[in-house]
Amino acid sequence: GRIQFDLYQYFQRE
Amino acid sequence: MLEGKFEEASLLKKVVESIKDSVQLCNFVCSEHGITVQAVDDSRVLLVSLLIGNEVFSDYRCDRNITLGVDLKSFAKIIRCGGNDDYLTLIAEDSPDSVTLVFEDKNSDRISEYSLKLMEIDNEFLKIDDMDYDSVIKMPSIDFQKICRDLSTLSESLQILITKDSIKFMAEGETGNGSVILKPRTDIDKPEQSITVKLNNAVNSTFGLKYIADIVKGTSLSNQIVIKISNRTPALFEYKLQSGYLRFYLAPKFED
Questions:
Q1: What is the pLDDT along chain B (256 residues), one digit of tens a residue?
Q2: Where are any strands of DSSP class E within B18-153?
Q3: Which of B2, B175, B226, B250 could be stapled to B92 by a disulfide with Cβ–Cβ 3.0 to 4.6 Å?
Q4: CB atoms A2 and B253 under 8 Å
Q5: Are B117 and B139 in contact (CB under 8 A)?
Q6: Closest approach of chain A CAs to the CA of B43, in angstroms?
Q7: ipTM for this model
Q8: B205 interfacial to chain A (CB closer than 8 Å)
């Protein structure tokens, strides 16, 4: 199976 | 005060139709430069980033920044009331609780006016720096849409492999597998048919097709799609507007 990553693992909140 | 007139309502219609299934509530931030939107879908996997530059409008004025908190499902219903070729003017006061849409039929004196109630939308803003990508491909947007729709019949995931002389789209499912290979080509007579690959490193990335199905709803906005991919980071899918863009950032999937 594959795991879906989310964007908060890459982009910081401003 | 905001007053922005589109030569044709169809542009804003297409933009709203392209993003309304990815995100429902979003802030349209209006400034002297144009209108921007940034919003993340509920699963935090897909980010929509829109810029409608002021040059897109036949008339545009926005004296100070105005935020329009919009429910896109409601906005889409109103915007469908206007004809594609109508002039469409968006009007809002400085601290608005509603936005007015005025459609003008070019062939008659008919003027239709609608107003949409605005909402307070408290969304987080993500900081996205310009990145160097391993590979940048440019291809006809309609071809990308067809490939993704075809492969989504087989699998929930789309694997994209890029080398300097080919782009391979692959889907593996329980009922079977499929793949489509494209080669770079330059079409001088129809540049929108060209396929280009810029490669720093070979790419092998996998994405959820349910998100890509939402991304390709932007197909009607541009003849070409630009896809920027690096291994193990979010990919950028971009439809360029005459001034501005509709971008989608999509987080990848990894082998467990």
A1: 999 999 999 999 999 999 999 999 999 999 999 999 999 999 999 999 999 999 999 999 999 999 999 999 999 999 999 999 999 999 999 999 999 999 999 999 999 999 999 999 998 899 998 889 999 999 999 999 999 999 999 999 999 999 999 999 999 999 999 999 999 999 999 999 999 999 999 999 999 999 999 999 999 999 999 999 999 899 999 999 999 999 999 999 987 6
A2: 25-31, 34-40, 46-53, 59-62, 66-71, 87-92, 98-104, 111-117, 126-127, 135-140
A3: B2
A4: yes
A5: no
A6: 8
A7: 0.94
A8: no
